[in-house]
Amino acid sequence: MNKRILVFTGLLISALLIVGLLHAGYYLVRNYDLDYKLFFLGYVINFAMALGIYSALLYFAERHNKHLGFLFMFGSTLKFIIYFLIFDPIFMVDGKLSKVEFFTFFIPYFTCLFVETFQLIKLMRELDQQ
Fold first, then answer.
1. What's the burial of 93, exposed, middle or buried (CB within 10 Å: 0-12/13-18/19+)?
2. Which DSSP helix (H) or strand (E) runs through 101?
3. Does 64 score more than 90 pLDDT?
4. Beta strand segments in 2-130, E
5. pTM, to two decimals
6. Range(s) of the domain holding residue 28
């Protein structure tokens, strides 16, 4: 189990670093007004949520492997709740959600979702072979 978490963490950090650098570079080239604290917070919170959800999936994989899909969906719902509790109030201070604000949260969200999904598929295949 620890090896899986380490592999997942390495993949997730690598993916988020690459995407984050491209994301920030795009904003720099386009001269978009960006709050880098929120930008960084979006990546950190998505990383922490993805790691927590994947760790929970690994914990439950041995006992309830038929329910991993539902647990994964619950984790995705939890991520949206976190978005609406933390980010949406910050973004809606001026009464509108700009594209930059939207993508500040959802680019790292979809990056984490991509890595989580492929690692979950790999985990479920390994469990089916046992």
1. exposed
2. helix 99-129
3. no
4. none
5. 0.91
6. 2-129
Sequence-ordered list of residues with C-beta below 8 angstroms from that of 106, at least 6 positions apart, any chain: none
Tokens 């680019």 locate to 107
Tally of structural domains, the chain: 1
Distance CA 112, CA 114 (A): 5
How many alpha carbons lie under 13 Å from residue 102 in its C-beta half-sphere? 4
Name the one residue in this structure whose structure tokens are 């719902």: 77
pLDDT digits (tens, 9 = 90+) for 23-62: 999 999 999 988 899 999 999 999 999 999 999 999 888 7
Residue 29 carries which side chain, given as an amino acid letter?
V
Residue 62: Cβ within 10 Å count = 10
How would DSSP label each residue in 41-57?
HHHHHHHHHHHHHHHHH
